[in-house]
Amino acid sequence: MKMILLEDCCDILDSMRIPITASDREEGQYPYYGANGLQGYINDYIFDDDLVLLAEDGGNFGSKEKPIAYRVSGRCWVNNHAHVLKAKSGLNIDYLCYSLMFYNVDGLINGATRQKLTQTAMRKMKIPYRVIDEQVSIVGKLKIITKIIEQRKQELHLLDNLIKARFVEMFGDPIMNSKDWGIMELGDLTEIGSSKRIFEKEYVSSGIPFYRTKEIVELSKGNNISTELYITKERFKEIKKQYGVPKVNDLLISAVGTIGVIWIVDGKKDFYYKDGNLIRVDASDKFNSVYLKHLLEFLIVGYKRSMSVGTAYGALTISGLTKMKVYDIPIELQNEFAIFVKQVDKSKVAVQKALDETQLLFDSLMQKYFG
Questions:
Q1: What pairing do the DSSP bridges indicate for beta strands 208-211 and 272-273?
Q2: Which CA distances in Å does 287 have to 33, 38, 267, 298, 332?
Q3: I want to staple 109 with a disulfide (CB 3.0 to 4.6 A). Which of 92, 115, 235, 336 is the partner?
Q4: DSSP 110
């Protein structure tokens, strides 16, 4: 396949960018773009065209899921964190975008803390050369698949909203207590705690999996995980005998960094978990775990808002969870809600499978057309 330099098939409009500080930006109607997409709206524009924006610094370099290039059209402002490219005659603008979205920039970017794709390096990037009719045909196929992927994602979003709507319908707003349930503190109804500290010197290459926030986030999505850390079976047995370990239907909640991700322990394998990063909520006879998970997801959103300082969150704490106000809901109603969630989850599994298959098709076509 013949390749063509980016500088030969595009007009590079970086010199037209005008840096503007946050304090100087005034709210308006025109999109304001940066390395990874829309940053907001301001009251002026410097471009009015069909363009491809390619991350210069702070981009999603190396990601297989988040693109480093995207399309914009019409009046807009672009900051100096994105290169601005206009396709020359004979190059379809969408073809250009697809060719750059997941471009392998290994060896092109520099910078230890904030990676940067300089204009000099960007000019030497190459994309496959094809006649315009072939470009349009490829773009048409990819757009159809992209639309299906977005539809599948929207279906999953709507199913999640359906569960939330059913929760509010059955129990009312968990903050406002619109149905006047009896209120108690979570710590009065169940045990909340963390784990016995495991030191770095105790990690081994195989044995009992050791989970951190990273693993809990993936498990909460139903994904398979590749365990990186382990403790010995002997150490696990010792901890289990002295301190206990999470049981089936206990909740593990991420407490630092990515706050509020909840996994219901499924009992499929023995594991241990990192203290401080994760908090365990005991599956007591007062709660159905599925109900409690969705209740806490509501409550933790409010907790994060109350703890936020600028863009940073304070950690979720055991004491914070212990003092959270929860309703005294009959277990029969909790179980009814859990049955509803189980039915919706079946639909989500089917949609997710279709999404994964469509994503694989998209990835294979991107590999075929752009390498």
A1: parallel
A2: 46, 42, 18, 16, 10
A3: 115
A4: B
Which structure tokens are listed for 362? 């998209």
- Alpha helix (H) residue ranges in the chain: 6-9, 93-101, 119-123, 132-171, 186-189, 213-220, 233-242, 289-307, 318-322, 331-370
Nearest to 105 by CA among 34, 39, 6: 6
310 pLDDT above the threshold of 70? no
Residue for token digits 């993936």? 218
Instruction: Render pLDDT for 160-219 as a digit per residue (tens, 0 to 9).
Output: 999 999 999 999 988 888 888 999 999 999 999 999 999 999 999 999 999 999 999 999
On the 0-12 / 13-18 / 19+ scale of CB atoms within 10 A, 184 is middle
Q: What is the mean pLDDT of the chain?
A: 92
Give tens-digit pLDDT for 338-352. 999 999 999 999 999
Q: Which residues, listed in sequence order, are joined to residue 137 by a DSSP beta bridge?
A: none
Please give the single-letter amino acid code of residue 99: S
Alpha carbon distance 285, 267 (integer Å): 18
